[in-house]
Design a protein that fits this description.
This protein has 124 residues and is mainly alpha-helical. The chain contains 3 helices and 2 strands, in the order H-H-H-E-E. It has a two-stranded antiparallel ribbon with strand order 1-2. It is flat and about 60 Å long.
């Protein structure tokens, strides 16, 4: 198995290179006059789209508000589901749920690394 730090370093190096290439790409797009015109047209259309969406949301009134509340509730329940599944798994138990059609679901875990506020000193 490969070392976690080696893989992390490799990912960081590739991300840096990707960032540099994206910057070159954006510079190339900025040099194209036709591209600038299209971007302006898109901004105008996005504003019109947002205005229509807002009007429809207002017209829907309570139904739209209910949908937003329900979406927030679903997100909270999904977080709780994740927490319970992780706890159950850490207790050495099997995690599985079944839907109304008798389809079985098992957890899929994903690891994300985020920068901590602590600075690591060499040798630690």
């Amino acid at each position: 198995m490969q070392n976690l730090q080696e893989i992390f370093n490799r990912v960081q190096k590739k991300k840096k290179e990707i960032k540099e290439i994206k910057a070159m790409y954006k510079d190339g797009l900025k040099a194209e006059a036709k591209y600038k015109d299209i971007v302006e047209e898109i901004k105008v259309l996005k504003d019109k789209k947002k205005q229509i969406e807002t009007n429809v949301q207002v017209d829907m009134g309570e139904a739209y508000d209910k949908m937003e509340t329900m979406q927030s509730d679903v997100n909270a329940d999904l977080q709780m589901l994740s927490d319970i599944a992780m706890t159950t798994l850490m207790d050495g138990k099997t995690v599985e749920v079944v839907d109304e059609y008798n389809n079985r679901y098992e957890p899929e875990f994903k690891v994300n690394l985020r920068k901590s506020n602590q600075i690591r000193k060499e040798g630690q």
